[in-house]
Amino acid sequence: MASMKLVHLFRRYLSIVLTLFQTLISRFFDFPILIKIADSFLSLYFLVFCDLRPVTVDLDDGESTVHFWISGHRRISRPNLVMLHGYGGNSKWQFVHQVSDLSKSFNLFIPDLVFFGKSYSKNQDRSVEIQASSIVGGLKKLGCDGGGRGKISVYSISYGGFVAYKMAEIWPEMVEKLVIVSSGVGFTQQEKTTEMRKHGGDYCSEILVPKTPMDLRTLVRISMNTGLKFLDWVPDFILSQFITVMYEKNRQELLELAKNLLEREEEPELPVISQKTLLVWGDKDKVFPLEHGYRLQRHLQSSRLEIIKEIGHAVNMEAPTTLNNLITSFVLSV
């Protein structure tokens, strides 16, 4: 009799332990602990190996804050380089393969665009202009005001290219040189519609702001031409954690930014900027095809186009060393 009671008691405790174990496992997969740990290691990498420091700037509009990673020890002998990311996560994840090398040649200013990473605004405007204004407002507070050593060069990719071009157009006294990588600057409404249909029509904005592991896999496959096999080895729960960390907090605002970009009617004639401009394209870009790079080069008389073979849209991920060499030689050249 006593032995039967012990068996029942053991089964009861075993059931409780198994229930607790299942709860912990489910919470582990649901809570984005792995991506948060990886994000923390990226921050440590930026701090220790790249001499970068996190700074959050409150803008004068009283509505916006912009988060930057900036060089911890700025040198007068080095030019200032602003790095503007595209869709696909915050600035750390997009520039992790580039910052170490570039930090040796430049005073870096790496913002999270508004609604990405730790940057935020109460402003209801979702235009490229408000992004440009927010970044410039933050840069001015950090000493880049266009005077003396306050001038900047801007390296931008994809969505960041739209912001960089607007900065060069509105604040020419501040922006000396421009590097635009794989960006649809100057795309007409018809061209945007055509490209959207290739990748899912109205669903395109959801791909830019993925909600499921399948969406994220689609975004990566559209963006990259090499290194895609690793996707088959990444479990869905890790991709889900990445989506939670990068997109869930400001999902609605990010969707509105994408919708504004894709649906807005561009100016009849793209303004010609005066800054020397380096255009860089992967010849396998499926987001903004290489033909657009040639057209943008013809539009900008003070520009040159560099083409990287067998590379897709995400040049910063697929060919970071080649891209860094192009940026450094262009910006440092007299």
From TrEMBL:
Residues 79-199 form the AB hydrolase-1 domain. This is AB hydrolase-1 domain-containing protein. It comes from Arabis nemorensis.
